[in-house]
Give the backbone structure.
Amino acid sequence: MSQENQERESYERFMVVVAHPDDMEFSAGGTVAKMASQGKHVTLIQVTSGNKGTDRRDITSDELAAIREAEEQEAAGRLGIAEVVFLRIGDGEVMPDLTLKEEIVRQIRIHRPDVIITHDPFRPYSLHSDHRGVGQSTVDATYPTARDPLHYHHHLTEEGLEPHKTAELWLSNPEAPDLYIDITETVDTKIHALKAHKSQVGDAEQLEERIKERTAEVGKAAGMEYAEAFKVIKMRR
Ligand SMILES: [Zn+2]
């Protein structure tokens, strides 16, 4: 095993930061299930509760948020995630501003991950502004803001939260991946977790087909049956 892989195997704490309930399952559900099954600690930070994600007219945003948070808790349980944190920013209202950055720095300093998985903010023509906003805020919070003590000193250092250095960022759905995670053993768990999002996913058989097709396509590039792919940014600790 290469030194890089050995180092990677030693990472015990993972944090996923995504915009909407089900984003993590689609982009990294198999990876997260694999890490959890190896006894690693995974925290999920859910920035919005997806409270606009419907074409129904007979439901309010608050009602939808409650449904989607419950679906996410169920999905996270199926994947073996230790803890889900809801930041409850409005769906479609994510701004990569100092307030969001501070909140993500707070979560990093609380949960102290070795690896953070988030949306790739550098991918060209990424259409959803919440995905771009969460990706950018998370990358910016990780480096260098969470690391250096004077950032948010009055709020966070005085809350007793110590600065934290994360080892790697894994950006999901990148244009040019350089890390493939073999999810052959966990692709069914990924699909099982996605099925918990009843308000979002339609026909179960179609979903299964779609996920297997997509993850097999990704796996082909790495000689794996089913895979998820990431762009890695390594940081010195
Ligand atoms: Zn999304």
The first strand starts at residue 13 and ends at 18.
